[in-house]
Amino acid sequence: MSLSFDHVPHRYFLDGNPVPSVTGILKASGLIDFSSIPAGILESARERGTYVHQAIHFYNEQDLDLAQFGEDFPSYVGYLEGWITFCQQRHFVPVLNEHRVASRRYQIAGTLDCLGVLDGTAVLLDFATGRPQDVSKDLQTAAYYALALEWASEDPLLAAFFTAHPLVKRYAVGLRKEGTFHLEAYDDPSHFRQFVTLVEAQRIVTARKGEWAQLAEVA
What we know:
By secondary structure, the protein is α+β, with helices and mostly antiparallel strands. Helix content is 42%, strand content 25%. The protein has a single domain (3-214), classed as Trna Endonuclease, Chain: A, domain 1, CATH 3.40.1350.
């Protein structure tokens, strides 16, 4: 398989060619739009999301120094505690974390937050330190799931997961600074069709006005 990610321009490459990301499509379509939020507040939220995502990744991999994280990022501890509470209360077992997926059919890529088992059921989770609806987690999770199913033909880890769990449910986990969480389920089968419509619309727009590959990832 040939899928890579360049952190500096925040861009995915599929078979050597730059391709837009799932969140890039949603941003270009206007479904992720923070233009009305002051720059300072937006940057703080972006930073919070980045560090909390990293902490959850390391926690899931059993490689996080909780005490050190608390010292370094005391204002973010509550969000991490929300995730830990979720894992404990709902008996969540992470299997694949921050896993990159892509589609040659649609020429897009992305990174899903987590595939795992929730209360005995296989799930694809995307977590947020803000409101899930503000970043279209319903369409995001549908896109990641579809891309993961296609990419499984080239990714043994994904293939093993889907072989063991042919039915996967989608959720967003909203994490709150008070150390609590909110679980939001998505079961509308039209979500991916809606996302594909956005992909095709952006393909038309960028063909006329700009480069397809310039639809960059957003945090």
